[in-house]
User: Fold this.
Amino acid sequence: MADGYQAPKGTYDLLPPDSPLALMVRTAMIAAARSGGYEYIETPVFEDTGLFARGVGESTDVVTKEMYTFDDRGGRSVTLRPEGTAPAVRSVIEHGLARGQLPVKLYYSGPFFRYERPQAGRYRHFWQVGAEAVGTEDPAVDAELIVLAADAYRTLGLTRVRLLLNSLGCRECRPAYRAALQDYLRGVELDPETRRRVEENPLRVLDDKRPHIQALLADAPLVTDHLCAACKAFHEEVRRLLTDTGVEFTDDPRLVRGLDYYTRTLFEFVHTGLGAQSAIGGGGRYDGLSELIGGPSLPGVGWALGVDRTVLAVRAENIAAPEHARVAVFAVPLGEDARRTAFLLITRLRRAGVSADLAYGQRGLKGAMKAADRSGAHYALIIGERDLATGVAQLKDLTTGDQEPVELDRLVATVKEKLQ
Ligand code: HAM
Assistant:
């Protein structure tokens, strides 16, 4: 296909046999959120551009370089969501969800879009499962979310996950730290682009991965040395609850993340078996986000776990998806009348909760039996024209090769008994 189409750059098709792994990962993450009482929400895949510009931050890479933004036919600027926190909080505000019991606990699962340079583990279309707790300023909620995420990775069987933890302070103590960091950075030799960053968003410089910048940062002031008493106590409580529940973490006073809404608790899960894109999930507290996007004061905390990267981590640790036969019964009809009967029988099986398939297309016995084997089914149901008259067909156990007659009238009950 010289001029055929391919999936766009930075995207990929999720196909069997890989797709069961992705479903397994999403399911484990969703189960963790649900176990903590988080409820499912869906928000649109695109939003007003301003929501992200204001919520995520005008000077972040996500907003300045990575958004899929376009004018719709009505002249409105819309953006494919690069993340889910600003939309979730927008939705809480719009629907007054915080008027009820607090915190509002929500989770979501879906695709997100960032125009990033594609590489292993970094895509332009990727999948997150996220959880947000809005309306409470209780360190136990921060700890709860971190424990739930750690448990999701653990139930998947991952052992090479590290948790990095930091606090970014609040609007009381952050300005003094920001100024101290700025002072320090103004005193070191930096390229013009980084100097501009020092003035705009100095904390982002801490995230610069270039070795010579990291070396320059060796003596930079640490945020944890500048926390106010309230932030310090809050952070200590999160650390204590994590320790009590046996969730191991590493204090990383240089941890910053690419979104501007964070206050206080900040965390990231990294997997040691991946390359440069090792962050498999992350999150933190965002006490000022609601006000930033025009809502009331509503503190919040949450995370988003990256499904694509977690699948890579699962592969790196050689964890397999549980084996599932595609169907339990595969019908092999021999002749036209037998096909109609087989069609009716697989429909009955499916309606009774037994997955079933049929050898479609005109195939001989040999080809149809091969299809049955390939399907991974437990049983092949072989129906010949003669069987129709007697009302009895052959049920072949595809694992043992044993074959026995089965009354068509009793097929559903017989198969259900056998599958138990
Ligand atoms: P984030 O760190 O930008 O946080 O994304 C969370 C996770 O999504 C990352 O750790 C990574 O696994 C995955 N991810 C991000 N970008 C890509 C990409 N281009 N390709 C593949 N995977 C990617 C947030 O999005 C925040 N909304 C998390 C949050 C929720 N904070 C508070 N509540």
